[in-house]
Amino acid sequence: MLNRRRFITQSALATGALLVGPAMAKAAHLDDAPKRLTILHTNDVHSRIDPFPMDGGRNQGLGGVAQRASLIRRIRAEQDNVLLLDAGDIFQGTPYFNIYKGEPEIKAMTAMGYDASTVGNHDFDAGLEDLALQLGRHASFPMITCNYDFTNTPMEHLYQPTKIFRKGGLKIGVLGVGVELEGLVPDNLAGNTKYLDPVQQANRYAAELKHAGCDLVVCLSHLGYKYSSSNKISDLTFAPQTENIDLIIGGHTHTFMEKPDVLKNKKGEEVIINQVGWAGIQLGRLDFVFNKNRRKNLAVSQSIPVSEKTDN
Fold first, then answer.
1. Class of domain 35-305
2. Which candidate among 127, 254, 283, 298 keeps its CA 20 to 30 Å from the CA of 46?
3. What is the dihedral of CA 177, 181, 184, 188, to 10 degrees?
4. Distance separating alpha carbons of residues 38 and 70, to the nearest angstrom
């Protein structure tokens, strides 16, 4: 009887090993397979809900929420792991903002499934109470900034310095930095907002994200791409002072970049900078491939015109 039980037990274990072995091998193979991530991004959309009118202007027919949404849906249908980000200045620029104070803009971003945005200087244009109202009522995405301290303002509980996203087995850390408010935002609109040094804050939080095991650290920057004045910090002067940031998605200067810049940070590691103009007439696309050791490579970079020709 004991021999029979031993035989049954051994047979069951052997059968289990045969079944589990291939499953474990398959799992190991999948873990070793390259992982892909697509980052889509906008900046300085400036309340451009509708496309530019067909009036003979250079931007006629470009932009518009419906056309951008259609393009985003198409890319999401083609790619498994997509992150949709914005680098600030959601508000100001069309009558939509003058009349509705940001409600249609935030509702549109929520409907398109934005994962995160940072704060631009024009997002203060109706005051902090309005920004907080629109985010609190209509946003499904976080507002991320680490160098604006909104303590004791209506925005106190409606922002965060960082957020970690999980996409296809990857951990993507996102932080945000904003431009100096003095000279751009009146005191009555900025309220008690405190501006903190963007380099110090970014390095502090990027280190936390790396320590948390992030495979890619993205900075949403509303500092501006470059300036003629040497005393103004821009993405080009910011990047070499950073540590642990892999990608800077920029805004503020409405710069149309033909391709991303690649600079070296304080450690001699590569930092990628990209920006796609303004008014939502382009959608940035960056496709990263991560090998089994989580080493990353920027495989594809595109600035896709947002028009009727690209949304179907």
1. alpha beta
2. 298
3. 130
4. 16
